[in-house]
Request: fold
Amino acid sequence: MIKFQAPIEGPIFIGRSWEEYIKMFNLDLNQLQNKKILDCAAGASSFTSFMSKNGFDVMAADLLYDRDPKFLQSRCEEHLNALIDSLAKMEKEFIWSFFKNLDELKCHRMAACKDFNNDYQLNKGKKYLMADLQQLPFADDRFDLVLCAHLLFIYDHRLDFTFHQKAVEEMIRVSSAEVRIYPLVKNKGQKSIFVEKIRDNLPENIKTEIVRVDYQFRRGGNEMLRLIK
Ligand SMILES: C[S@@+](CC[C@H](N)C(=O)[O-])C[C@H]1O[C@@H](n2cnc3c(N)ncnc32)[C@H](O)[C@@H]1O
Reply:
């Protein structure tokens, strides 16, 4: 088995809980009834599992969704443990409001991962599709709302501007109305250099807005970007 090396460098296979998603993206569930939603680069998030169990029309895409559930469970546990080890060395750089401490974060995220995995076992290839964000396997305007968390902007030292631009173009293409991206900052609260560059390079018909959200773990991570068609 390939061992994941701390400190964490590239995109890692973990997932936020549905409760975190609701806050990160300012989601109002009443407004999402009858809407088609895509979470891309969804990782081990419990958002799709929770939403579909509650009657919402939701799909998830990720580069690793061709892997079997056992592999993803062990990768998620391994990456979560590596994340906890690295967070323990820099606890003061994070905001402890949603989570009181590292133990709480670990329990919460492990539960999200298990929830994801149970649903993935049943719905791999149905709700959970393997896809590269730069080339999504969906028709134009297929979804009303497309969400993307913790892949764009935070890895701008590894994923170049062309990757960001292609991914954003694809998410806009498959959405009929709106794309939301969270967060806009990297560690230490530094805003990604690509946020304004992306906004400046969009087609004229796309309006953008940076919106305050009621969630913050990374310093300065209380904003999302809305792209409105
Ligand atoms: C840090 S996780 C974020 C998971 C979830 N969105 C969240 O906020 O908790 C990043 C995810 O991006 C996926 N990923 C990396 N590159 C990708 C690409 N080119 N296309 C689709 N998914 C990708 C990884 O497999 C991983 O699951």
Observations:
- The CA atoms of residues 159 and 229 lie 25 Å apart.
- Residues 11-16, 41-43, 45, 62-64, 132-133, 149-151 surround S-adenosylmethionine (CB under 6 Å).
- DSSP finds six helices and seven strands in the chain.
